[in-house]
Design a protein that fits this description.
- The complex is a heterodimer of chains A (about 425) and B (about 250).
- With about 425 residues, chain A is mainly alpha-helical.
- Chain A has three domains: about 5-60; about 110-230 and about 275-415, ABC transporter involved in vitamin B12 uptake, BtuC (Orthogonal Bundle); about 235-265, no CATH class.
- Chain A is about 65% helix and about 5% strand.
- Chain A has 17 helices and five strands.
- Chain A has helices spanning about 5-25, 40-60, 60-70, 85-105, 115-135, 145-165, 165-190, 195-215, 215-220, 260-265, 270-295, 300-310, 310-315, 320-345, 355-370, 375-390, 395-415; strands at about 25-30, 35-40, 235, 245-250, 260.
- In chain A, the strands form two sheets. Chain A has a three-stranded mixed beta sheet. Chain A has a two-stranded antiparallel ribbon with strand order 1-2.
- In chain A, strand 3 and strand 4 (about 245-250) form a beta hairpin.
- Chain A is globular.
- The two termini of chain A are about 35 Å apart.
- With about 250 residues, chain B is α/β, with parallel strands linked by helices.
- Chain B has helices spanning about 40-45, 70-75, 95-100, 110-115, 115-135, 150-165, 180-200, 210-215, 235-240, 240-250; strands at about 1-10, 15-25, 30-35, 55-60, 65, 80, 170-175, 200-205, 220-225, 225-230.
- Chain B has ten helices and ten strands.
- In chain B, helix 5 crosses helix 6.
- Chain B has two domains: about 1-75 and about 170-250, Rossmann fold; about 85-165, no CATH class.
- The chains are: A mainly alpha (about 425), B alpha/beta (about 250).
- Chains A and B meet through helix 11, helix 12 and helix 13 of A and helix 2, helix 3, helix 4 and helix 5 of B.
């Protein structure tokens, strides 16, 4: 302990020495010469707080480490470790980070049409990854996936229309609601297998659509719901008084927030609202990817795989197949709800026509094209399918033809999909 | 520990198992033998819950278990292997053993997503238990290979290890020596005895290899055409004229 205090003090001092000149001193033009001025008090307080945090973490480093390190029971002198990082993992991580940075910066340099299409691609990425959990990982053929997408979209649209709730409140609600629907549907039908399951889920998808179409008093029927607000972003302001301001990106505030351009005294830029939505979609897609990557490595992911391989062996080992299938179905459905809320926010207007059976087919096609179970494959396939749909809008009548041709060619050349799944294996490290 | 009373299983008009009774005590090795098609595996399927028996009672640890779903029976501490090896072929050897410990690890989604300390601890324990059993059945060098690529004898041993990581009280082995060479059969013999002596496991065994059965069994039941034919110690069975007749035919 005695040695740690000076070291922690040293680290904290270093933080101040590094941070203060960079953040706390500004160069300003005064006429022709440069003048050094001090920054405002908040910056200085920030630097001091940072130094304090460094001091405390350095002081308690070993304790923090100890709580996070797994206790290792010792069986016969064998010491094992959980799977760790190796070089390939590092490289793929770097590539991923580069991609994310590119995705963050690029929309600011393109025309406003591109971030809009990219948002749609990201919505389909989330949908594809979600369905991938059900079809690719757990091996359950779900043809009514679009129903959960509709649940997510309508829950945001209805809650915002009737109660004026914001996107950020409705996003988790839509997700949970879709998961609940998944659970309710999954419970009776998961004892069915293969083709039978596919047909029942197909029926469920149609039921939801027809229900939305006919529940005119609430959902507006075929006329749909319009004026769904775009998501706003929170901004913490300190002056004149401390409060959280919800910034909106439209020309006028509609949702009790403040328009972004007025708040910062900037000229109004109509492409900004598209870019912000794109960035939100990007964040949600990245969250989806991270969650599913963890799921694959978790016990539940192992159980999905095992259940797909040999159901009888699973049962003999005490695995409850209904519970495991249900978890896949529910988790998949919740991602559809996630994507649905985002879709409603992007469109600003939804009606049951957006959730026809054809959508389920498209999402399934994305999973199959990408390679069942493969995450990167699904992302690439989502981009291809959406771009194909958007770019060939002029040749509407030939669109299905092109789509079918691509499918046939795929099945001939790459029956496993673009990038067949390579599951990360858990390794036993031996010493 | 296990008590089966008048077990009967009908498939339509066919009586596959007819009034079979048997018991397995603590730390006992009990074998079921009989000609092909005698209904031995059907008895296994009834006990482990894969079939719902038409009639009869099955008790495990003084608890009636007939009619319970198979996964619940397995959770009570009664695990089986299969006549034809059933591994998760595309998963690695170590993953096969991790799946079997699904009930022991932390399956809470949130703690898994954030790798909470308790999740890490449970995973590490599962890894250690798996490694321990891999060492025991001599598969540690192939731990990271996919199970489908193992040699047949290794697959058989992996299946037993996969049962043992669930820490059962009763292990049911369906023809574990089928397809093994004499050396592997000898190792299996030692392994089964060690399971009984060192890990307090009772074993119910179906086997055709008579030298193995006679060598390790405490008691033997003989089934012929679904019906019980004889029971007793290995020596009694060897001398029983009915058994000789069923196996070798009449003179």
């Amino acid at each position: 302990m005695s040695k740690k205090v000076p070291f922690a003090l040293f680290c904290a001092g270093l933080t101040v020495i590094l941070a203060f000149p960079i953040l706390g001193l500004n160069l300003e033009h005064k006429g022709t010469s440069l003048v050094v001025t001090g920054a405002d008090n908040w910056t200085l307080i920030g630097v001091l707080v940072a130094a304090l945090i460094v001091f405390v973490t350095q002081l308690l480093k070993s304790q923090i480490k100890a709580t996070y390190q797994a206790v290792k029971p010792n069986f016969g002198g064998l010491i094992q470790r959980l799977p760790g990082e190796d070089k390939r993992k590092l490289i793929s991580k770097l590539v991923l980070i580069a991609l994310i940075i590119a995705a963050l910066v690029l929309p600011f340099f393109t025309s406003r049409q591109w971030p809009d299409i990219a948002t749609l691609v990201l919505i389909y990425v989330i949908l594809g990854l979600g369905l991938n959990v059900v079809v690719g990982l757990a091996g359950l053929l779900d043809l009514g996936y679009v129903a959960f997408y509709a649940v997510g979209a309508y829950s945001y649209a209805l809650l915002s229309q009737y109660f004026g709730w914001s996107f950020w409140a409705c996003l988790p609600i839509g997700t949970l609601l879709a998961a609940t629907f998944g659970l309710l549907l999954g419970f009776p039908v998961l004892r069915l297998r293969g083709d039978y399951l596919a047909i029942v889920t197909l029926g469920f998808g149609e039921i939801i659509r027809i229900l939305l179409n006919n529940f005119t008093s609430i959902t507006g029927g075929p006329n749909g719901i319009g004026n769904i607000p775009k998501p706003s972003l929170p901004f913490i302001q300190f002056e004149p008084n401390f409060e959280i301001v919800w910034l909106e990106f439209g020309r006028r505030a509609t949702d009790g927030g403040v328009p972004f351009h007025k708040f910062f005294d900037l000229p109004y830029d109509s492409s900004l609202k598209v870019i912000v939505l794109y960035l939100i979609a990007l964040a949600l897609a990245v969250i989806t990817i991270l969650i599913i990557q963890r799921l694959i490595r978790m016990p539940v992911g192992r159980a999905w795989e095992a259940l797909r391989e040999d159901e009888i062996a699973c049962r003999s080992l005490g695995l409850n197949r209904t519970a495991i299938k249900l978890s896949a179905f529910t988790i998949g459905a919740s991602f559809a709800g996630f994507a649905g809320s985002l879709f409603a926010a992007r469109q600003g207007f939804i009606n049951p026509e957006s959730f026809i059976f054809w959508e389920s087919v498209i999402i399934l096609a994305i999973v199959v094209l990408g390679g069942m179970g493969s995450q990167i494959g699904v992302m690439i396939a989502a981009a291809i399918v959406v771009l194909l749909q958007e770019l060939t809008a002029e040749f509407d009548e030939y669109r299905l033809l092109a789509f079918g041709a691509i499918m046939v060619l795929m099945m001939i050349w790459k029956p496993q999909g673009l990038l067949p799944m390579k599951r990360p294996h858990i390794k036993l490290k031996q010493e | 520990m296990l008590k089966v009373d008048n077990l009967t299983m009908r498939f339509g008009g066919l009586i596959a198992v007819d009034n079979v009774s048997l018991t397995v005590g603590e730390r006992e090795i009990v074998s079921i033998i009989g000609p092909n098609g005698a209904g031995k595996t059907t008895v296994f399927n009834c006990i482990s819950g894969f079939y719902k028996p038409t009639d009869g009672a099955i008790e495990f640890k003084q608890m009636a278990i007939h009619g319970l779903p198979d996964f619940k029976i397995s959770r009570l501490g009664m695990v089986r292997t299969f006549q034809h090896v059933r591994l998760f072929n595309s998963m690695t050897v170590i993953e096969n053993l991790l799946v079997a410990q699904h009930r022991r690890v932390n399956t809470n989604l949130l703690s898994g997503l954030f790798k909470s300390p308790s999740y890490r601890k449970k995973e590490a324990e599962a890894m250690d238990r798996a490694a321990y059993w891999l060492k025991k059945v001599d598969l540690l060098p192939v731990a990271n290979r996919s199970a489908g690529n193992l040699a047949y004898g290794q697959q058989r041993r992996l299946e037993i290890a996969r049962c043992m990581v669930t820490e059962p009280k009763l292990l049911m082995l369906d023809e574990p020596a089928a397809g093994l060479n004499p050396k592997e059969t000898k190792d299996l013999d030692d392994l089964i005895v060690s399971l009984k002596m060192d890990f307090d496991v009772s074993i119910l065994l179906i086997e055709h290899d008579m030298s193995l059965v006679m060598g390790i069994s405490d008691r033997i039941y003989v089934i012929n055409q679904g019906a019980p034919l004889a029971q007793g110690t290995p020596q009694e069975i060897k001398d029983n004229p009915d058994v000789i007749k069923a196996y070798l035919g009449e003179e």
